Amino acid sequence: MSEAAKDLVGSSKRQKLGPDYFGYYTHEVVELLSRNEDVSPFASESSDISRSRYVEVRGKDRIEHSNGVYGSLFSNSLGNELSDFRKERLKLLLRQGVKVLAPEVDEMIEPVVAMSQLKSQLESRKCLSRGAASDVDAGKAPSPKKLKRSSCSSSSLSALSSPTNSESNREVDDDWQFLIENNSLQVEETVKKYCDQYYAKLGHMEQQLEKILDTVMSKCRPMTIHEKHKLGKQIQKLPPENLGRVMEIIQNSNAAYTNSSDEVSVDLEKESNVTLWRLFHYVEAVENARKLASS
């Protein structure tokens, strides 16, 4: 095995090492919310009585929760199914998760962008090659190209396959260009290999986050008719670029859902309670981001 090949294999193994924080926090949330709490018979009876009252509508934007506390629409979404202890534990887990997982996502941005740029360069190179071949077929002599001397080494190949250091990227820029121009097949194979790894890692991250969200939303109380009506209006006000995510959330729980028109049509009465709360929190996230951007 060549030194360059050894560097590529070593770089690949290093990327697979390290703790799976996404899997860890998913397991912790699922474990917390699936755990049965020990409650006294009196507490259970009281809980049953309170659930019989559940939620009553008090005017357009106010509801009375089962514990007799008034609140705005969408408030107290977790209801009475979880004890205060588990609610606080859940909040703590989610806050810790955001702090730990956000940097994990940020670390993926640079290599993914670098691979995307390399793929674009390879595609451009292929287009130029096809154009040159067409010229030859048409009887035109292709313009001569002067090959420059290679300065690439095993270290530059390693940096190419694992572009996680911006300073290293700048140092091997010339080597990338040389390889693309003179050994594009090797570059293409390397890019495909690492793109597959990055896509797999991003897919794992997405899968675990979806599981966390679905698990938490499964503990939410049923959404009221007034809340569904207001949610529908909020979805209609979303910018066009955010409607695609709305369709994704619905399709994740309803594979049969299709939308052939330019406008997103959603019948909230037919959606599951988990989907409704997923949609609500997404709409809220979009609105909060808009407020931050305008402040």
TrEMBL record:
Residues in NET domain copies: 213-294
Residue segments, region Disordered: 133-170
Keyword Transcription regulation among UniProt keywords: yes
Record-linked InterPro entries: NET_dom (IPR027353), NET_sf (IPR038336)
Highest taxon of the lineage: Eukaryota
Biased composition regions of type Low complexity, renumbered to the chain: 150-167
Protein name in the entry: Putative NET domain-containing protein
Lineage, top ranks: Eukaryota, Viridiplantae, Streptophyta, Embryophyta, Tracheophyta
